[in-house]
Amino acid sequence: MPREVIDGRYLHEHIEGFLNQATEDAYAFMVDYNGRLTNSTARTGERSMFGDFRCTLCSHRWKSGMVCTQLWYSKAADTYRTQIHAQKCRRCNHYVEPDMDVDNYVQKVTKAISLWKGLRLREDPDEDQKQTPPHDTERCHGCLVGICRRKDGLPAHSIQYRRRR
């Protein structure tokens, strides 16, 4: 049975691989994965990422440039966590887990951590972003639970920042 929320730990090896080969100062760091970080223990934000979907019940396929992904980062522990939100199939309304675009995931996660570590400045969104169909807020799990910023019509590049209290 597909999950509505997927722990991003399985993608950590790609983060490590990128950081091990990075030559830019903004990415001259290492970070560990901690699946127990919460809103009260870490800084958090949301990013829209690219992913492919294939329903295991009806075989319907689609792509999305707005896979809601939550990020947490603890500067004190130098650890991070991600949660990826599933989307419902248009044909059968069954939750489907995304097959994430690994390069896009690594880029967005490492850019957010680099910003939060103070290693780079905030940038304007890319002007050459891939065009995708409108966001289906009725089928996005992130929207349904109030996490996804796209439910309010905000741009895909927007990120919500909450500092630990």
Write structural notes for this entry:
The strands form two sheets. Strands 1, 2, 3, 4, 5 and 8 form a six-stranded mixed β-sheet that branches. A two-stranded antiparallel ribbon has the order 6-7. It has helices at 12-21, 102-116, 141-144, and strands at 5-7, 32-33, 43-54, 61-74, 79-85, 87-88, 95-96, 99-100. α1 packs across α2. A hairpin with a 4-residue loop joins β4 (61-74) and β5 (79-85). It is built from three helices and eight strands. Mean pLDDT is 87; it is low at 154-165.
Mean pLDDT: 87
Count of discrete domains: 1
Low-confidence regions: 154-165
Main sheet makeup: 6 strands, mixed
Shape: globular
Helix fraction, binned, reads: 10-25%
- How many helices? The count is 3
Number of strands: 8
- Quote the distance from N terminus to C terminus: 36 Å
What is Rg? Answer: 16 Å
**Given the helix and strand composition, which structural class is it?**
alpha+beta
Please state roughly what percent of the residues sit in beta strands, choosing from under 5%, 5-15%, 15-25%, 25-35%, 35-45% or over 45%.
Answer: 25-35%
Order of helices and strands: EHEEEEEEEHH
Question: How would you concisely characterize the structure shown here?
Answer:
This protein has 165 residues and is an alpha+beta fold. The chain has 3 helices and 8 strands.
Q: Which tags fit this structure?
A:
two-stranded antiparallel ribbon, 165 residues, six-stranded mixed sheet, alpha+beta, globular
Secondary structure elements and pairings:
Elements: E1 5-7, H1 12-21, E2 32-33, E3 43-54, E4 61-74, E5 79-85, E6 87-88, E7 95-96, E8 99-100, H2 102-116, H3 141-144
Parallel strand pairs: 2-5
Antiparallel strand pairs: 1-5, 3-4, 3-8, 4-5, 6-7
Helix pairs in contact: 1-2
InterPro entries: ZAR1/RTP1-5-like_Znf-3CxxC
Protein name: 3CxxC-type domain-containing protein
GO molecular function, one term: zinc ion binding
